[in-house]
Amino acid sequence: MLGLSVFAGAAVAEPLAKDLFGAKKLPAVAAPEAFGFYSKGCFAGGMAIARDGPHWQAMRLSRNRRWGHPQLITLLERLSREAAQDGWSGLLVGDISQPRGGPMLTGHASHQLGLDADIWFTPMPARRFTDRERENVSAVSMLKGDSLYVDDRKWTPAHEAVLRRAAGYPEVERILVHPGIKKKLCDTVRGDRGWLGKVRPFWGHHYHFHVRIGCPPGSTGCRPQDPPPRGDGCDKSLDWWFTDEPWRPAKGPAKPKARDIMTMAALPAACRVVLDAPSPPSEMAVTLGGDGTIAQASSQAPAPDLPVLGYQAFDPASVLSAIPGSRVPRPSSRPDLQ
Questions:
Q1: Which residues form the signal peptide (predicted)?
Q2: Other Cβ atoms within 10 Å of 133 Cβ, number
Q3: What is each CA distance from 1 to 4, 14, 265, in whole angstroms?
Q4: How many CB atoms lie within 10 A of CB 136?
């Protein structure tokens, strides 16, 4: 009898939030809005960045993590275009978010609100990667061997320029980089150094930099992060990263990662609504194309509840309702990784 009770309890256990959100292939059709915090939340009205644009290529397509709040996706398109003017050949875009955010099946603790994006420190090559290359080509570490310091043979003025450009956008609240990269900037940036305060040292992030924007207007259920400390960050707080303390192994048994135990009860109540919301008719219908507009939606006006930030912004819900069924494009193909 006891065995049957244990089995029954396991059978009705609440599923993990990562499994529920990871199973969603398309975003929630609703007004764009983020709910919760960067490491515990979700978002509606998501948009994808196209796998290829004039100044970007999306990597690791099989993960289906090219999705974000429209404000972030359009900002990435703008960054790719304006960084090219600074000498950066193009963005290799890594993980953004799952179609509806939420905890990921693997990897990041954050990236749940559609407000985070990883950009490789490897500049885009002159040719287009194949699907297989997008899955297997590795980003290049900026560090010298296994040290904490930047390899001067890899670091270029263009690396500084793309970080300066990204930090200059008012929507961007933080850019995470390896402490060695932060130190390199502290040692070499001349002229205006005000933007350096947004560039924060963090574990990892020597292959890519992490762009985070703040809670978008209209996302009243989004919990903002405390602003970075004042100053350029080139102080004693940076010195700490070059001691032994940050790199010591944790004591005691390893704790389970939050995503491996998080259920829907841990997320904002709105995330249940996001999870159950209908999907758009296709991926392409809510994908930002290379010309900075959503496919099939170039004639649509900006949604009134989305800010216009120097680029065209759309409400995916209004886009979808305006597309006749006969004109809905087929979803883009996925790479075969077997």
A1: none
A2: 14
A3: 5, 22, 30
A4: 12
Give 67's DSSP letter. Answer: E
Residue-wise pLDDT for 67-81, tens only, equals 999 999 999 999 999
Residue spans of beta strands (DSSP E) within 51-162: 52-53, 56-58, 67-68, 91-93, 116-120
Taking the CA atoms of the chain, what radius of gyration do you get in angstroms? 21
Question: How far apart are the C-alpha atoms of 269 and 274, rounded to whole Å?
Answer: 9
DSSP secondary structure letters along 198-258: GEEE-SS-SSEEEEEE-PPTT-TTBPPPPPPPSS-S-SHHHHGGGSSGGGSPPSSSPPPPG
Task: Please tell me the pTM assigned to this model.
Answer: 0.83
Question: What is the per-residue pLDDT across 239-255, written as a single tens digit (0 to 9) for each?
Answer: 999 999 999 988 888 88
Q: For residues 293 and 311, is the Cβ–Cβ distance under 8 A? A: no
**Which of the residues in the chain have pLDDT under 50?**
1-11, 296-338
Return the domain boundaries, the chain. Answer: 35-225+233-243
Task: Look at domain 35-225+233-243 and name its CATH class.
Answer: alpha beta
